[in-house]
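LAB NOTEBOOK - FOLDING QUEUE
OPERATOR: T.R.
BATCH SIZE: 2
PURPOSE: Compare the predicted structure-token outputs for two unrelated chains run back to back under identical settings.
PRIORITY: normal
REVIEWER: second-year student, initials M.K.

ITEM 1
FIELD SEQUENCE / FIELD STRUCTURE:
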Amino acid sequence: MIRLKPHKYVQRIQKRLDGIASVVVVSLVLVILGIATTGVLTNVAASQRKQSSQENQQRQSDRIANYIDDRMTSYDQILVAASGIVNVQGAASLTSQDWTRFTSSLRLDETYPEILGVGYADYVTPAQRAAYVAARQKSGQERFAITPSGVRSAYTPIRYIQPSTTTNQGVIGYDMYSEDRRRSAMQTARDSGRPAITEPLALLQDQDDGNAADTPASVLIYYPIYSTGDAPAAQTEKREALAGYVYIALRIDDMMRGVSLTSDGYYTITDITGDAELPIFSLVQGPENATDGAASMAQINAFNRTWQSKISLVNPLVNTIVSPALLFAFGLICSAMLGGTAFGLLSQRMWRVQTAHQQELQRTKDEILALTSHQLRTPASGVKQYIGMLLQGYFGNLTAEQQTIAQKAYNANDRQLEVIDQILYVAKADAGQLLLSTESFDVVALMREVKEGLQQTAAAKSITIDLSAPGRLAINGDARYVRMVFENLISNAIKYSYRDSRVHISIRKKKRVVHIAVTDHGVGISAADQARLFHKFERIDNPLSRSEGGSGLGLFLAERLAKAHKGSIRVDSKEGKGSTFTVTLAIKTVGTKNVAQLTDAY
């Protein structure tokens, strides 16, 4: 047989085809490897980000539950203190002035803005009704009447409620036993001798327009008052000794403004005590239908009822599905630069993990600091209220020595609260929870208020405070934090001035800014120490620093707040000659600014 050899040209073509096939095979292998590597890295990143999102979601849920637990503890303390006032004065002898004086000491607008009112209601039987109404009218409540009208087995008309707003005064005389949810909670409190909270309901104060559907969810918390003082042991004795109730009316939406809900997602709180879930609070932030469906829940013991917080945050993971053509192109790039790409991806991933870890560590530190400060402030505020009650003579007259000791304790508690507040504000700023809300206000009037508020402190050292200012000067800013800046500066001027000296405040306008200078004739500050003045936790050693306490946060916070108002603080001082702190503020600022943007980077 004759074998024909292929033509050389055909052999060359065949070799080329074989080489191309080998290249194609190797390329396909590299492409597949690159695609596989990309898929693995993408899945790992997606899994880690999803896990991180779920952990953050659970932290947010736990933080809300802890916040509500803290508020319930505070409400319990208010009710116990209110019952103490009623028991000391006697329910029959309790006057409107007694109730006003007590509620004023709570500083509701500042400390508990969610509380619409703190009230007292009597327990009245049908046989006592006519005499009770006549007694109330004779005591000064001329228009007092029990509403709604009608005969019932018992009545709990509201006698007093503060603050004395128009809407609050409109509910005087309302019989809370006439409504099922209120009566149920009051009877639970009566039989247990402990605070009891209602189901979510609409307050009478929120129903002026008659549209109950649009009213915010609210609750009432009741605490029983017995004619025996302490709660009797037996349930029948509790019912026979019931004299009335102290109670708190609060709006849930206003309460939840105290916790920062900055992440996009769904936030809900429901009452799950009974068979049906009762909605209490609901908030949707960010795009709809953007959550991954996995919610984090936490149960909250709200006195006699059980609440449940539920959070479903927006999944931060973007869509990882791409078209086959793009995936193939990306695989070709990975096949050619697999080593470099892997190194780059791993390096970038490591940097992100380290950065996220540092940020999480800082956030955790700030949250712990804020939570610790809050936990310190709650009992400290309670101590202040009880010492104030001692000084005001609620529990009898004090001897001169007891009065002196109680006043010293009250002043020391004030200083403690000041330090806690400063730590709390700094922690909020570092955690991104301190926002400036600008509005127009009279800075001269504000300075007069700050001056008057510090007159007593200055008088204790025989220091005179002078103010030179125009009649009125309006600027834009957040009046709360501008006040904080100058309270710190003027308080420092008093602290570090010698007795029988003077502190001078001057306000002058120049073009689009206002210059406010605080001058003292105290110990002064050396040039070397001035560079450290505005650092966190820095205190300058001087002849008065040991006797005058401080946290080292006042000037740091003042400078941050001044910068947030597009301003600055300048110090001019010589050691032993006194100091002048000049604050320059823009007369007009725009929008809302986050003080956290001004803190040091992570």
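ITEM 2
FIELD SEQUENCE / FIELD STRUCTURE:
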Amino acid sequence: MHSRNGLLFLILVLSTLIGCKKSTESRFDFDPGVVVATVNSDTIYAEAFEETYINMLSRTGYAVSYQHRFFHLNQIIDEFLLSQEAKRIDLNDSLAFNYAEKTSNRTLRNLFVKYEFLEQLELPDEKRTRFTFYRSKQNPYVRQLFFNDESQANDYYNRLNNGESFVDLANELYNTATYDSLAGFIGEIRYFGVDDVFAETVYALDAGEYSNPVRTRQGFVIVFVENWKLNPIITETEFEQRAEGIRFMLHQRDFQMGADSFIRAFMSDLNPEPVRDNIADFQSYIYQRLPQKTNPTELQRPIPSDFISSPDDLDLQAPLVTFNIRGETVAFRVQDYLNWIDSLPYDEIRNRFDASLGRALMWDTFAKESKVKGYDKDPFVEFNSDLALKFYLASRLRDSLKTREVESIEQADIADAYTAFGYDAEKLSKISFHLLEVKDFSTALDVQQEIVSGKLKMETLPDTQFLNGDQQSLRNSELLSHLLRATLNHPHIVGTRSGWFILKVQHRQMSIDNIEDVSSEIADKLSPIYNEFKLLRKLRSDSNIYIDTVAFNNLMDYSLQQDFK
């Protein structure tokens, strides 16, 4: 019933806590940090800024900069202003209360792993870091026997111990059509480039040795080291440059491997027993009401709110799983699952229901055990729930604003958007060019020289294309940046993912959009956000907003030092 993906989720959530080990006595000494800004009666602390900024960076991949961090601070201010307005118009209702309670439970779920496991981890010392650095300079060539079933893995291990050949068994296991001397061969691997358990198992072997069956995230494996490739160049300077990164990756590996074992042991001790008839009924209910995704690239689909808040014809108290904890038999019910459903992956709910059930059971048990152990007294629970509620209320109000009719958009706002959307920048309005695809860079160089010397006329070569376009038609072309920069009537060598080309631009015309011509287009772009924009302008004008620039600059200085350490 244990969900391996649930572990991966917890690893991501808790990764920012790695290295922040506290003693048992001080585990509740949560400090939100310095005051960065105040928005009327609300305070933005350093912890709130850093947590939301890190989350934003992980979603967007933006580069860290002073300007971007200040922009993010202003986004938080906007969220606080919208949440205050949402409370004023009574959006802080039962839905908001339920959301705050779910946020609290999610925080308690994470704190359980933090306090029960993460705080027990020791940071890697220098001796181990040096040894790992040395390991990273060695790459083994590996074979594997892979199994979904542990008993089958043990059977093959016994046959290896009885003298059977690893290659022979690999041919049998993988059912090769003809005998293959490379059966089970993976090739060269890197210490930090594969599954954690797999890497630790391989790097404990000498050439010619095989391992016991081990459980990785993918399944059970027996690995065999063919040979070792050694990099003899090991310098103190390189170690000093890489030591901090290696220490962090080692601590992550310790966490991932240890948390896997911790969670598996914890869930196994519960002795969970599925109630199959109730699971089948509930699963059928879900399939009828949650549609299959039509777009395979869609990552997550929101669960309809009415499905969670008021499910029809559903026994919310029906037990899905029973388990034992602290000497008592406890039921995990339909309502418990629904409390977590909007955090579960949509595909897993639809296509691997047992996995989603195991994940929800694990999360729910961790959250409830956190309360039993008093972890709900940690001030971080209230702090995090309050912050999440502010963002939730802002989102509720933003959705409401989108449904309201948009009044006429002011010309001053269209003028500002003309610049903000980049309409005032030069664009390629017309271009004509010759393009010749060649075999490789060496050929391109030869052809370019022949054209420049006059021995070849590019326009008359049989494979040369003559093409026309503009910024819109060429917006997805790998050639666009070259077309904008190329010197007219000169053959340029251009390398792209598609190959090598000779490019000769014959004519290029640039222009700037006239604001009168694009006003309607700008208005269409502004329309979905204009009500929010006008409200925020008014709220900012009517509010008391203070930014402690000294504290914020000090925070940025420290954070940037850590980011580029």
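REVIEWER COMMENT (ITEM 2): The chain is about 50% helix and 15% strand.
FOLLOW-UP: none requested
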